[in-house]
Amino acid sequence: MQIVLIIEDEKDLAELISFNLEREGYKTVIALDGAEGLEAVEQVQPDLILLDLMLPGMFGTDVCKTVKKSEKTAQIPVIMLTAKGEEIDKVVGFEVGADDYVVKPFSTRELMLRVKAVLRRKAPEPVATNIINVGGIRIDTERHEVTVNGDEINFTTTEFKLLYTLVMRFARVQSRDVLLRDVWGYNFVEDTRTVDTHITRLRTKMGQAGDMIKTVRGFGYKLEVQ
User: φ, ψ for residue 55 (rounded to 5)?
Assistant: First the structure.
């Protein structure tokens, strides 16, 4: 049974989310502030974290940074829950390592779809070999490790899946909608800014090798060797 940690200071909302998740077959743990949430992350090692942005004592962004900086917890996906829906808030959330972003008020159905989508993409798709090499990029799908020109890069689960998808579809243009469907698991229209933000993060982390990710203006992205 997969465990979802809910870090949310509104107790009634946390309990409502917990009820619906448990009805879907998940086990849940609730933390009402950031410090309690970080303690629960260490103790429980959840499969997914639902994290409120505005928490007493510690912002959700700081909680997310702490989770993503630890080697032990960095691969735990995080969905941010927040009343802030401005573009800059979403960008900041993704920049600190969040895998998805849900704006309050949200429907139960939407949240359950997001949870399922994030958990589905937690592991890479199976391939015939564990090692993939393309233009200085080396992906070990079994160890979930990536090296670029010999340097190991620490990617979030979503960044890993996005790079993996581009590598496996080498030189083929992928639209933003296709990437949202295949990487994020969305079967409905979403804000494609999510894709653009993650592509920017991939390029930054990969350094000069990030230039292999090409923008096809008005359509999407492809990966090709210089």
Answer: -115, 150
Question: Cα separation of 215 and 110, whole Å?
Answer: 30
- DSSP one-letter string for 145-163: EEEETTEEE---HHHHHHH
- In order, the DSSP letters of 150-205 are TEEE---HHHHHHHHHHHHTTT--EEHHHHIIIII---S---THHHHHHHHHHHHH
The pTM of the whole model exceeds 0.70: no
Question: CA torsion sign, 131 to 151 to 172 to 202?
Answer: positive
CA torsion, points 95, 103, 37, 146, in degrees to nearest 10?
Answer: -30
Which segments of the chain does DSSP mark as H helices, in order? 11-23, 34-44, 60-69, 87-95, 108-120, 157-168, 176-179, 193-206
Instruction: Please say whether the beta carbons of 149 and 226 come within 8 A.
Output: no
- Strand-strand pairing, 78-82 and 100-103: parallel
Strand-strand pairing, 48-52 and 174-175: unpaired
Tens digits of residue pLDDT in 41-52: 999 999 999 999
Q: How far apart are CA 172 and CA 164, in angstroms?
A: 13
Chain centroid to Cα 139, Å, comes to 18
> What token pair was written down for 157?
């689960």
What's the CA gap between 7 and 185, in Å, rounded? 23
pLDDT per residue as tens digits for the range 156-199 = 888 999 999 999 998 888 988 889 888 888 765 556 788 998 99
Distances (CA, A) of 158 to 27, 39, 57, 79: 23, 24, 28, 11
